[in-house]
Design a protein that fits this description.
Number of helices: 4
Order of helices and strands: HHHH
Distance between the termini: 72 Å
Structural class: mainly alpha
Radius of gyration: 23 Å
Helix content: over 70%
Largest sheet: none
Oligomer: single chain
Shape: rod-shaped
Length: 88
Amino acid sequence: MDMTTTLLLAGAVLVLLLISAKVFSAPLKIALKVLFNTLLGLGALLLLNAAAPLTGLSLGLNLFNALVVGILGVPGLGLLLLVQWIFT
């Protein structure tokens, strides 16, 4: 390959990378926000379970509970406790 073909190919690759970065930036931001909120929900569940001897409230530490608490916040925690209370 000569120099002109190499430069054109490199330019095309750069343009494709920029376009794909623009297209995938919004979904990536949303995915990172959900991941961060899930980790915060997991921390809230850990705190709830650490206080279980004092309060008598505990929930299982799993991905579903962490997602619900992370996305819905305090109302999600209340919802999970209510569901647990209804089914026990």
